[in-house]
């Protein structure tokens, strides 16, 4: 499920073209038309009903398989199972094969379709730094799962060095108010309709240390993955941008959402605040475009921010001013 050479070249071109140029409006229109045509999309609805597609069913079977595996392991510890021990691993093998198969299917579809970038505004204002960017690799987070093929993570950094550095050992965890991005306004990237909004999950302490990341990967991430996409993305908003493109904002601050499903928003409107909910190592904004509002079903779509393009990982940028700043080293975010 790693990026191909072709995909890397495609996104490098997207990043280089990000500052605009002749034909930008035509490219944006073509991108939105492609998204709708690729999935046979009907006119956008404010709150689409649940669609039991093959991908949705596969994700449900994936989670169920892991739960059965855990149940068999626990049962095997408590009592003697009436079958050979190796059969215990069958559900785990099924889960791994399903996830691998979905990833391969998405990668093939992406290479065949070569979806053009959808141009939109940046989801924040002020000075931020990009991490896990599709300008560096595709898929940007090492997986196509949850529609995050072209996802990007950004952290608030109003001044160079104002964000706490990644710690090797201590402190293992930090309070969220130590991070300047926590509580920063998150904005609509275009005129859109709110499809989904959820902000009831807590903002946990940071995990931006080596022990914290190990704990996150070995315990929290796996449990959230079993619980479903909503637990992975944490507090979130999904916007219908039209033409079959949906914007997902993840890891938002608890209780900060100012919009609800079915409402209309305008480009630049504040809709929530940066938080640290869900599968996250520190307060940051996870942004991605998908061709379906459900992360279990949607495939990732490339984006390009007005005046910024696609910032590379470790690169500081200032939104609204349209200025691309010099790259700066930054630690990883989940």
Strand content: 15-25%
Helix content: 25-40%
Q: Which shape, going by the Cα principal axes?
A: globular
- Indicate the mean pLDDT: 82
Oligomer: single chain
Instruction: Evaluate the radius of gyration.
Output: 20 Å
**Please, how many helices?**
6
Low-confidence spans: 1-49, 321-332
* Largest sheet, strands/sense/barrel: 10 strands, antiparallel
Number of strands: 14
Determine the N-to-C terminus distance: 18 Å
Class from secondary-structure proportions: alpha+beta
Q: Output the helix-strand order.
A: HHHHEEEEEHHEEEEEEEEE
Summarize the structure.
This protein has six helices and 14 strands. The strands form three sheets. Strands 2, 3, 5, 6, 7, 8, 10, 11, 13 and 14 form a ten-stranded antiparallel β-sheet that branches.
Label this structure with key terms.
19% strand, 6 helices, globular, two-stranded parallel sheet, alpha+beta, disordered N terminus, 334 residues
Description:
- With 334 residues, this protein is α+β, with helices and mostly antiparallel strands.
- The N terminus and C terminus are likely disordered.
Secondary structure topology:
Blueprint: H1 5-16, H2 24-39, H3 54-78, H4 90-113, E1 118-120, E2 126-131, E3 152-156, E4 185-187, E5 192-198, H5 210-227, H6 229-233, E6 236-242, E7 245-250, E8 264-265, E9 270-273, E10 285-290, E11 300-301, E12 303-305, E13 315-319, E14 323-327
Parallel strand pairs: 1-12
Antiparallel strand pairs: 2-3, 2-13, 3-10, 4-9, 5-6, 5-8, 6-7, 7-10, 10-11, 13-14
Helix pairs in contact: 3-4
């Amino acid at each position: 499920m790693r990026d191909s050479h072709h995909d890397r070249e495609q996104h490098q071109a997207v990043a280089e073209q990000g500052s605009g140029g002749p034909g930008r409006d035509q490219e944006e229109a073509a991108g939105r038309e492609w998204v709708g045509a690729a999935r046979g999309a009907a006119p956008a609805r404010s709150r689409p009903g649940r669609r039991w597609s093959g991908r949705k069913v596969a994700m449900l079977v994936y989670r169920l398989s892991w739960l059965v595996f855990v149940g068999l392991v626990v049962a095997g510890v408590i009592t003697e199972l009436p079958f050979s021990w190796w059969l215990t691993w069958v559900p785990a093998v099924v889960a791994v094969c399903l996830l691998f198969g979905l990833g391969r299917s998405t990668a093939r579809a992406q290479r065949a379709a070569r979806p053009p970038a959808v141009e939109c505004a940046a989801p924040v204002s002020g000075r931020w730094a990009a991490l896990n960017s599709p300008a560096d690799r595709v898929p940007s987070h090492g997986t196509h799962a949850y529609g995050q093929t072209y996802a990007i993570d950004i952290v608030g950094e109003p001044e160079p060095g104002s964000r706490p550095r990644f710690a090797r050992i201590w402190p293992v965890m930090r309070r969220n108010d130590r991070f300047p991005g926590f509580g920063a306004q998150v904005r609509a990237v275009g005129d859109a309709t709110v499809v989904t909004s959820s902000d009831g999950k807590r903002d946990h302490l940071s995990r931006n240390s080596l022990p914290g990341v190990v704990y996150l990967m070995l315990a929290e991430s796996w449990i959230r993955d079993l619980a479903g996409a909503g637990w992975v993305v944490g507090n979130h908003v999904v916007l219908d941008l039209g033409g079959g493109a949906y914007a997902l904002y993840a890891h938002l601050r608890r209780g900060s959402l100012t919009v609800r499903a079915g409402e209309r928003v305008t480009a630049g409107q504040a809709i929530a605040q940066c938080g640290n909910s869900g599968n996250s190592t520190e307060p940051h904004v996870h942004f991605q475009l998908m061709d379906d509002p459900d992360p279990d079903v949607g495939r990732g779509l490339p984006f390009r921010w007005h005046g910024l393009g696609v910032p590379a990982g470790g690169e500081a940028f200032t939104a609204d001013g349209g200025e691309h700043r010099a790259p700066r080293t930054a630690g990883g975010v989940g």
